[in-house]
C-alpha cells in the first residue's frame, strides 16, 4: 500500500511540474505579446511624429491615401524591427524560464524593452536633422562619420543641431515610454486553459505552438506568409512621394539599409569583376583595343593640343556646398550667386550646368578631383594603396609634368580625413591648412573664406608657375560668419524668396553663407585676374543636396553642381552645348586645355573639351538634358521637353559600369587586371 501511494505521489508531482511549465510558458508568451504590441506601437508613434514634424516635405501631389499607405506599409516593415527585441525576450526569458526551472530572470524583459525603446528614441531625434540635411533616413554615409574630424563634428552637432536639447528630449521621451511599458507589462495575464479530457489539453498546446510558428513567419516576411510578398527596404517605396517612402522605413530598417549598401559597395560594385570582363571594360574606357593586362594602359590618352596659351597660374576652386541651382534663371532674384553669374557672363568664360559631384560629401569630391577616380565608397584617404605612390590618373603629378608647382589650400584642419597626408601622397608638393593661415574668425571646421583666399593671394610666386587647388569651408554648418559685417543685404535675398519662407531666419542665414562664399570667390578671382591677367580659373562645387528653397526639389536642383572655366583664351565654344560631366572629368578637361599636342596623360573620365556626354556618381547620372537614378527608371528632363531614349540609357549604363569597374579594380586590386597570387 505504501508503495502505491509513493507511486501516485510521484505521478502527481510530474503532472504538476509539467502543468506549471506550460503555465509558465503560456504566461511568458503573453508577456512577449505585450512587449511586441507596445514596441510596435512605439514604431508607429515615431513614424507619425516624423511625418508631422517634417510634413512640409510632403509634395503637393501626395494625398491622404499616400499617407495611409505609408503608415500601413510602415507597420508591416516595423513588424520585423519589433521582432528583434521580442525574439531576444522570447529566448532569454520565455524559453529559459520554461525549460530551466531554476533560472533567475528578474525584470530582464523590461530591461530589454527599455533599452530598445531608449535607442529608438535617440534615433528618432537624430533622424529629423539627418533627413533635413540629406533628404534620406540614415544612409551609408554614417560609416564615414568617425573618419571625420570628430571634435569638429561634435561641435557642429551641439551648435547647429542643438545636441543637448535633442538628448534631453530623448531622455524625457524614453523615460515616459519606459514607465508606460512597466504599467503595460503589469496588466493581467490569463491562466492556461485546462480541459477535462487529456486530448483537449494536447490539442490546445499543439495549436499554441503552431500559431506561434506561423506568427514568426508572418513577422519575418513583414505581414506576409511567403517570401513572394515580403516587404523590405528595397521594395517598400510604394507611394509617389519620396518623403513618405522614407517615412515607411523605421530607424532600424534605415540603419540596416545603410549597413547593407555599405557592405555591398565595399565588397564590389555589383558588376562582373573577373579579369576577362575587366579587359572589356578597359577597352571601352580606352576607346580601342589595348594589348595589356595593366590598368593604366587602358587609361592612357594623348592630348589633342592646348586650347589656350599656357597660363602662369592655374587656380582650381572647390566650393563647399556650392550647388548649381542658385545659378539657374528662376533663382536670379535671390542675389546669392551674383559673383559666379557675372563671371559666367564674361566672353572668356565657359560653363557646364549639367555636372554632378563625385559623392555625397566633401571628401568624396576631393578624392574624385585629386585622383580622377570614381566614387567607390572605399575611402581612399585611409587605404594603404593611396600612400604607395600617386595613381596614374592623379592630377597633381600630371600638372607637374606640364611645369606647374601643385599646391593644396584647405581652410580647415590638416587632420580632417587625413587630407594633408593624402594630397601630399598624391603628388602635391605643398599643403596649407587652417594652422598655416592667419585669420581672425572662423569655427571648428576652419577659418572664414576671406582669410583663406588672402593667404593664397599672398602665396602666389609670380616667377614660378603654380597650380593651386583651393577648398573653402564657410558655406557649411554651423554657419558662423558675421554676415552683417561682410555686407550681407538680407532684404535683397528675402525679396526673392517665396512667401512661405520669407520669415525662415535659419534658411536666410544659410543663404547668406552661400552669398558670402560666392562673393569672396568672385573677389579673389577678380583680384588675381588683375594681377596676373593670363591666369586660368576653374570653379566647381564639392557637392550639393544640403540647401534648397524647395522642400522637394527636382533631382537636377538637388544634386547638380556647376563647372566653370574662366581665363584668357577661353570662349563659349570650348564646351559644346551637349556636354555633361562629373568630378572625374575635371582632370582630363584641365589637361586638354593646357597640354601641347601629343602630351601623354592618364584619366578615367573623358575631357569635356572632347564632348563628354555623361556625368555620373554614386547614385545618379546626367546628360545635357536629363538626369536619373542609376539602376532605376526614375529620371527627369532638365529642359522640360526632351528625355533620353532607352538606347541612350543603355549607353549611359554601359559607360557607368565600365568606368566604375575600372576605378574600383584599380583601388581594390592594384595595377594588374590579373590578380597575382
TrEMBL record:
<dbReference type="InterPro" id="IPR000917">
    <property type="entry name" value="Sulfatase_N"/>
</dbReference>
<keyword id="KW-0472">Membrane</keyword>
<keyword id="KW-1133">Transmembrane helix</keyword>
<comment type="pathway">
    <text>Cell wall biogenesis; lipoteichoic acid biosynthesis.</text>
</comment>
<feature type="transmembrane region" description="Helical">
    <location>
        <begin position="163"/>
        <end position="181"/>
    </location>
</feature>
<feature type="domain" description="Sulfatase N-terminal">
    <location>
        <begin position="312"/>
        <end position="594"/>
    </location>
</feature>
<feature type="transmembrane region" description="Helical">
    <location>
        <begin position="202"/>
        <end position="221"/>
    </location>
</feature>
<feature type="transmembrane region" description="Helical">
    <location>
        <begin position="70"/>
        <end position="96"/>
    </location>
</feature>
<protein>
    <submittedName>
        <fullName>Sulfatase</fullName>
    </submittedName>
</protein>
<feature type="transmembrane region" description="Helical">
    <location>
        <begin position="35"/>
        <end position="58"/>
    </location>
</feature>
<dbReference type="GO" id="GO:0005886">
    <property type="term" value="C:plasma membrane"/>
</dbReference>
<feature type="transmembrane region" description="Helical">
    <location>
        <begin position="108"/>
        <end position="128"/>
    </location>
</feature>
<dbReference type="Pfam" id="PF00884">
    <property type="entry name" value="Sulfatase"/>
</dbReference>
<dbReference type="InterPro" id="IPR050448">
    <property type="entry name" value="OpgB/LTA_synthase_biosynth"/>
</dbReference>
<dbReference type="InterPro" id="IPR017850">
    <property type="entry name" value="Alkaline_phosphatase_core_sf"/>
</dbReference>
<keyword id="KW-1003">Cell membrane</keyword>
<keyword id="KW-0812">Transmembrane</keyword>
